[in-house]
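Hi there, hope your week has been kind to you so far. For a while now I've been wondering how a particular protein folds. I'm sending you its amino acid sequence along with the backbone structure tokens. Could you read through the record and tell me how the tokens relate to the sequence? Take your time with it, there's no hurry, and the full record follows here.
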Amino acid sequence: CIGSPHSILVDNFGRRFTSESELRDQEQHYGFYQEMLQFDPATLSFPRAPVWLIFDHALMLNGPLATLGEGSTVSGLTTWSEDNLEAVRKGWILTGETITELAQSIARHPDNASRLSAELLQKSITHFNRAAQSGFDEQFDRDPSTLEPIAQAPFYAMPVSIDVPHMGAGLKTDRNKQVLRWDNTPIEGLYAAGETAPVSQFVHDRGGHLSECLVFGRHVGRIAAALPKRGRQ
């Protein structure tokens, strides 16, 4: 539902920060993730953890906001109704008859901890609605086909966090891919290559980790072949 008409994303302070439609663009969605992961060194916090999906009743009536038939909705870990009302009853979706009321609901949420400013949220929505009226998002160049205003009360907010479905860390290794202990000393005879000990991130669907398996697997194979042979214990 991110990037849908009648909706925007804001950080914990109420500021819009990116083009929401980038998430649907296969060439740009990793840049979208990186925007969500921004760290603020001044406050030692992640201002976009979580981000808030702000939307109006028009989107609420358009169908389920969660993807049914995939992920946790299939396994039964999460239940989500077609009309989204079950999520409202559970408190997963916050509501407000006005933007000010919605801002107050978000500020009371423990994940926001009173950081959100009603003034900043109203400003973000006002800018977006002007973009919807003109057909051009001068702030972030969002896809014009998704520019529909947030105008129909009641208004809603839902916290959104990143779910990374692949490994971006793993075992620490030296330049030869020999696995290291916590004190950075090598473990004799133990090597790792590929997604178990990656050197790159955010490239798994471009074959990045597969390339690591081929390149570093070959490298480690040569090292292993040159090691002294050991008899069975």
